[in-house]
Amino acid sequence: AELAGLVVSCFLSFVKMSDAWKAAKPFVTGSLSGCFATCCIQPIDMVKVRIQLGAAEGGSTNPIEVTKKLLKEDGVAGMYKGLSAGLTRQVFYTGARLGLYDIF
């Protein structure tokens, strides 16, 4: 009888957990997809920002030159400066947008 009660308890916990996952899944998958997209586009966005800064300061606006300079000065890690801000935005914004899509 004790074992049966334990099995029923585990089953009910699993059912509750699957209900929790069902509710959270759109938010989690939305956040993860936004983070993946941000990781892919971050280097391109970094070059774009450096081009904009170069144009404002009278520097180079050639994407190839800007990329070479960025890699020379900061290495590959320089392409991902500011990534944490982009990831934070995606977790909240894209997670909420895609998570709430079916509701509204």
Distance between the termini: 46 Å
Beta content comes to: under 5%
Helix proportion range: over 70%
Continuous helix count: 3
How would you spell out the order of helices and strands?
A: HHH
Could you give a short description of this structure?
With 104 residues, this protein is mainly α. 82% of the residues lie in helices and 0% in strands.
Question: How is this fold's topology laid out?
Answer:
Blueprint: H1 2-57, H2 63-74, H3 83-99
Helix pairs in contact: 1-2, 1-3
What can you tell me about this protein's structure?
- This protein has 104 residues and is an all-alpha fold.
- The protein has three helices and no strands.
- Helix 1 (2-57) packs across helix 2 and helix 1 crosses helix 3.
- The model has no long low-confidence stretch (mean pLDDT 89).
Identify the notable features of this structure and list them briefly:
3 helices, 104 residues, mainly alpha, elongated
